[in-house]
Amino acid sequence: MRQRFQDIDYLGVVLWLLRTGIIILVIWGSVATIIQNPYSSKTWMDFIVFGVAQGSLYALIAIGYTLVYGVLFMINFAHSEFFMSGIFTATILLANPMKASGFLDSHPFVGLGLITITAIIVSVAIALLTERVAYRPLRKAPRLVPLITAIGASFFWQYFFRGLFGSEVKPFPQIEGLIGKIPFLGTEILINQVVVIVVAIIMLIGLYIFVMKTKIGKSIRAVAEDKDTAALMGIDVDRAISITFAMGAAMAGIAGVLYAMVFRQVHFFMGFIPGIKAFTAAVLGGIGSIPGAAVGGFFLGMFESVGPSLFLQGLGIPAPHQLKDVIAFTMLVLVLIFRPQGILGERLAEKKA
Q: How do residues 49-73 score in pLDDT, each as one tens digit?
């Protein structure tokens, strides 16, 4: 009898009960919400559109996490500051002065292009500097050392830009050409949401083609597979890693501009929550996989937008949309418990891991 109790997998039983309980609650809340139907079809469509736009931002930021992890097998927690630094600098030095002078109103798309280029340049410069000073000397160190260094670099850049530009929330100017709505499937979509979705999809497809089809992309994939063998084949490993950081930071810089267009404000701490959400999206999709980061970002954005109304409204929880952050981080925990390799990730063999 004692041997039988010793053979029971108690952790497996607890996880099975947890999984079953969550599934029951989700189904119960969803069915109750569908029966009650507290929202109109237009409201549901608004939830979906906002979720796709939000997911587009998460996907762009998550690309940086997944690229660096795929090459160096480290989580670059300073990536959220690459996202912040570009748009924060571009807003202070370029966007607001152009708005005050009237140039942004008379030439909105030229001004937006200059803001985007400035944000990308600053984000890439911060990323390359961080990689060269903080990460490259630790290339052969145990994985925990670069991880702690990344957290330190994140705090360093946060308070560097706080000292440089101040701690106040800065407004991002309204782009005249992006004001208004367009009709779509019985509802109206904000033009800036359409821009966010279209730009994000184009950049994700372009990055995937670049990594998979170009010579530089092949060298990055070779370095990700085996750095020593890639070096023996004549590939400049340091250059490939620097390009990887630059590509991720460029995506983060573009995401910063799109984020500012939607939420209309920037500050030194603005990268923390989107960065953690993007990391969640990367893990959800399968960290190390570019399509996985994209799928994870869109999935998390939709889950955040539709989830509170669909899953929590029927359970009688007041103000469910205030719990969207709880839902996002609960998703991270559940993915790590039940499918740690993510949606599109592969389960590594013991020898490869």
A: 888 888 999 999 999 999 999 888 8
Cα–Cα separations (whole angstroms), residue 265 to 51, 79, 172, 260, 270: 20, 19, 5, 6, 9
Burial letters 12-45, b for 16+ CB under 10 A, else e: eeeeeeeeeeeeeebeebbeebeeeeeeeeeeeb
Number of domains in the chain: 1
Pairing status of strand 265-266 against strand 181-184: unpaired
Query: How does strand 170-171 pair with strand 187-190?
Result: unpaired
Task: Report if residue 309 sits inside a domain.
Answer: no
Angstrom distances, CA of residue 54 to CA of 1, 21, 206, 288, 326? 55, 29, 20, 21, 16
Look at residue 141 and give its three-state secondary structure: coil
Tell me if 21 is assigned to some domain.
no
List for the chain the helix, strand, coil content (%; round to 5).
80, 5, 20
Backbone phi, psi, residue 265, to 5°: -155, 150
Single-letter residue type at 275:
G
Exposure of 212 in the CB half-sphere (CA atoms within 13 A): 9
On whether residue 209 sits in a domain, the answer given is yes
Q: CA-CA distance, 261 to 26, in Å (whole number)?
A: 34
Give the CA distances from residue 112 to residues 117, 148, 162, 348, in Å, rounded to whole numbers and listed in that order. 9, 36, 24, 43
- Residue pLDDT, tens place only, 159-209: 999 999 999 999 999 887 788 788 776 677 888 888 999 999 999 999 999
In a domain, 187, yes or no: yes
Residue type, 67: L
For residues 120-156, one letter each, b for 16 or more C-beta atoms within 10 angstroms of the residue's C-beta and e for the rest, the string is bbbbbbbbbebbeebbeebeeeeeeebeebbeebbee
HSE (CB half, 13 Å, CA atoms) of 113?
4
Domain that holds residue 85: 54-270
Contacts of 196 (CB under 8 A, 6+ apart): 53, 56, 57, 258, 261, 262
